[in-house]
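Priority: medium. Attachment 1 of 2:
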């Protein structure tokens, strides 16, 4: 199914979109799709897809034009994630994670020359950055770090046991959270940008999962020593709500929407095939295809509305920090992940046994296994539990529009 624009409009002026972006994304998606089954079967990094992504110069599109990038907007990135996610979920998610980290650097470098040099290299050399935000006993609590940076003679050093660093071995750099100092609280964090020469990795655990197998999300002990000016100047307590959370939930959601759309496309193809084979008789599964399209429409609507809401306030620190916005953007993740799973399940039931089998052109198996990761990435139960108190304090709306 051809990817559609998820937003009705954009904050960017017409004609300022990176040149031929959709065509470039589709060229990468074509390679990703052709390799997706093999990537899934071997749980390996989608190297062919990322060779094409580099060829299409998609890794640096978010970097400002002043630093040799293309200045792509958030909805540009969402569309690329949607297209790639529909072809290969692992490729789409890796691309999303990279762009989330690029967004943190772009929005919070504050003129730091070392970080701007890294951004320029991302654009010109097509560097791929990985993310390291989980470690030790903290697990999925990304707002608490165990390992602390140590400062000495213009450098910082760090050793952290990261339970997951997706595509760490294949990345050209890693962006990691850490405690500000040995005597700092776990929530007093910084974000540190590391390039390949700055760190070593010692594998702690392998990656053998139900889905998203190509993200190659192994655990490592990360040991690093880097120039101190590669620490972002703003504290992570600002970066997290202003950029990390909105970009993560919107770009992850775009990947999940791409998976859902691909599954719905298979269901549509199956129903059309069944109608042709039965002289126009609509099969029983058609009802589930209708439901798949309905949930996909709701999914795209949720993401589109959240994109517009964030774009409207992304330069307003006070508005972003407001309880209403933070609750909305966090719940967007829950809604998007659940709707994506529902869409794929409806698509599977529309295809029936042909969707359940792994050896038919209508197989939904890989899409289902991949999308089932969505509610578990920053577990929806954790999100809903954390928001329970906030929800109790929030007044109920008194009208449809209010």
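Attachment 2 of 2:
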């Amino acid at each position: 199914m051809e990817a559609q624009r998820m937003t009705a409009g954009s904050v960017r002026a017409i004609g300022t979109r990176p040149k031929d972006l959709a065509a470039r994304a589709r060229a990468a998606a074509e390679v990703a799709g052709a390799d997706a089954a093999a990537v899934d079967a071997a749980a390996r990094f989608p190297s062919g897809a990322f060779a094409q992504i580099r060829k299409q110069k998609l890794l640096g599109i978010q970097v400002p034009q002043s630093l040799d990038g293309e200045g792509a907007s958030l909805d540009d990135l969402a569309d690329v994630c949607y297209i790639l996610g529909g072809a290969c979920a692992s490729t789409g998610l890796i691309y999303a994670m990279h762009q989330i980290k690029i967004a943190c650097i772009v929005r919070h470098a504050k003129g730091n020359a070392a970080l701007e040099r890294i951004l320029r290299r991302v654009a010109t050399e097509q560097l791929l950055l990985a993310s390291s935000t989980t470690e030790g006993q903290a697990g999925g609590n990304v707002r608490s770090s165990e390992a602390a940076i140590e400062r000495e003679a213009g450098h910082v050093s760090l050793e952290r046991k990261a339970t997951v660093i997706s595509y760490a071995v294949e990345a050209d750099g890693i962006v990691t959270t850490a405690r500000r100092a040995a005597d700092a609280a776990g929530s007093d964090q910084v974000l540190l940008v590391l390039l390949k020469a700055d760190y070593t990795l010692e594998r702690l655990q392998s990656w053998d999962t139900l889905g998203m197998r190509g993200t190659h999300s192994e655990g490592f002990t990360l040991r690093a020593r880097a120039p101190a000016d590669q620490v972002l100047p703003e504290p992570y307590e600002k970066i997290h709500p202003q950029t990390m959370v909105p970009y993560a939930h919107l770009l992850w959601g775009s990947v999940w929407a791409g998976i859902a759309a691909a599954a719905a496309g298979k269901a549509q193809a199956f129903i059309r095939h069944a109608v042709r084979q039965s002289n126009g008789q609509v099969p029983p599964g058609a009802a589930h295809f209708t439901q798949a399209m309905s949930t996909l429409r709701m999914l795209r609507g949720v993401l589109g509305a959240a994109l517009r809401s964030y774009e409207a306030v992304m330069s307003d620190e006070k508005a972003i920090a407001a309880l209403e916005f933070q609750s909305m953007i966090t719940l967007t993740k829950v809604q998007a992940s659940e709707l994506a799973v529902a869409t794929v399940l409806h698509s599977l039931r529309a295809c029936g046994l042909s969707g359940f089998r792994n050896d038919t052109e209508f197989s939904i198996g890989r899409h289902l296994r991949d999308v089932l990761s969505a509610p578990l990435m920053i577990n929806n139960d954790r999100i809903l539990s954390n928001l329970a108190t906030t929800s109790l304090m929030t007044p109920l709306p008194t009208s449809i529009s209010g």
